[in-house]
Write a structure and sequence with these properties.
- The protein contains 6 helices and 15 strands.
- With 237 residues, it is mainly beta.
- It has one domain: Hypothetical protein, similar to alpha- acetolactate decarboxylase, domain 2 (60s Ribosomal Protein L30, Chain: A, 2-Layer Sandwich).
- Its EC number is 4.1.1.5.
Length: 237
């Protein structure tokens, strides 16, 4: 039995509910690998081998050791690969096709792929302050970075179409370089050779911040939610 644990929902961020509602310390009791963000959508988190790395919108990447900081939205799991993978040529557009033999359309799965990327394009959300805007507005002002011939790891998840709202339908992937100096939410990539693993999850655990009064009182706007999430996340096929 393998479990994907998600705190908060992407739909909450769409409506500006960006207060951190779970400490990283609590989050890490549910996994040693994952992705997320901090209060105010402050940057992009990549969790690898039980360590948390924070990509900031100025391009800096920080190793977070103070796990009392909080996240509004993160997904984690314990790295227990279902199958090992090796690809000769793969990019953001062909990832799903490369994994077609594994019949992922209706299941939650996770990838952890390592190699040298001839090109990678990432975004990093800028920190917002109250009153928080919608995630769509944040995406329009995001910082973007590109790198060539960089070695690192992709960490991310695939979610079935019916789960658009709680999370991103399709792929949601972060990248971190081996030297931990370059990281972010992946918009595009190209690599001539990648090796790693695929993990299929039996369980998807959705944890909600029920003790947070702003969350309890928020009115979720469902109009165009799926389309707006796709716009705000970008780059996944």
């Amino acid at each position: 039995m393998t479990k994907l644990y998600e705190h908060g929902t992407l739909a909450m961020l769409m409506d500006g509910m960006m207060d951190g509602t779970m400490t990283l310390a609590d989050l890490m009791t549910h996994g040693d690998t994952g992705i997320g963000t901090l209060t105010g959508t402050n940057g992009e988190l990549t969790i690898l081998d039980g360590e948390v790395y924070h990509a900031k919108s100025d391009g800096e990447v920080v190793h977070i050791t103070d796990l009392t900081v909080a996240t509004p939205f993160s997904s984690v799991h314990f790295n227990e690969p279902t199958v090992m993978l090796a690809f000769d040529v793969v990019d953001a557009q062909s990832l799903t096709a490369h994994l077609g033999d594994h019949d992922l359309a209706n299941v939650f799965s996770g990838i952890k792929l390592h190699g040298t990327f001839q090109h990678i394009h990432v975004r990093v959300a800028k920190e917002q302050s109250q009153p928080y805007p919608s995630l769509l507005d944040v995406a329009e002002g995001q910082a973007e970075f590109q790198a060539r011939d960089i070695t690192g790891t992709l960490v991310g998840y695939y979610a079935p179409e019916i789960f658009a709202g709680p999370t991103t339908a399709g792929w949601h992937i972060h990248f971190i370089s081996d030297d931990k100096q370059f990281a972010g939410h992946v918009l595009d990539f190209y690599a001539s050779q990648l090796k790693g693993s695929l993990q299929i999850f039996d369980d998807f655990v959705q944890h909600l911040p029920v003790d947070n009064q702003s969350f309890r009182k928020m009115k979720q706007n469902m109009n165009g939610l799926k389309e707006n999430i796709a716009k705000s996340e970008g780059g996944h096929h």
